[in-house]
Amino acid sequence: MDWLLALLSACIGALAILLSPIDASSWRLVASRSGSDLRSKWHVRDHFGGISPWKAKTAGIVTDIDDIPPGCVIDQVHMMSRHAERYPTMLPGIRMLELYHRLQNTNATLPEAIAVASRADFYAPFPNEQFEQLTSTGPFAGTLQAFKAGTTFRTRYKGKYINSAGW
Hints:
single chain, mainly alpha, 5 helices, signal
C-alpha cells in the first residue's frame, strides 16, 4: 500500500508542477558550461519525458531551403510521425480515471496541493470517446498540430509528395 501512496504523491506532484503558474525564472539553476543563464529557458515541465507537453525541436534541423548545402537538391521527402497530441491510451486512461475517482471520494484530509485535484473536473469528460484520440481543443490540440504539419509538408514540398490518400 505504501507504493500506491508514493505513486499517488508522484502523480499529484507532477500535475501540480505541470499546472503551476510559476515561471521558469523562479527556479535556481546553475549556468551551463558556456556560461549562459538557463533560468529564462528552463522549465521542469519540459523534463517529464512522455508526459511533457509537445514542443518542436529547435536545434540541429534544417529550417530553410537555403540551409541545404550548395549543389544538393531535394528529390524525395519522407514524413514519419507517430501521432500528434492525444489523450492517453485506454489502460493508462482507465488508471488515471480510477485515481481521479478515488481522490473525489476520499474521506481523508488531504494536503491542499492534492485536495485541489479532488475538486477538479477530469480532463476527459467523455473517456470512452476521447481515450486514444487526438485532442481537439486547447493550445496543444492534436488535430490542429496534425493539420499544420500536413499543410506545412504539402506546401513546402509541393510536387515532391504522392497523394496516397486519394483526395
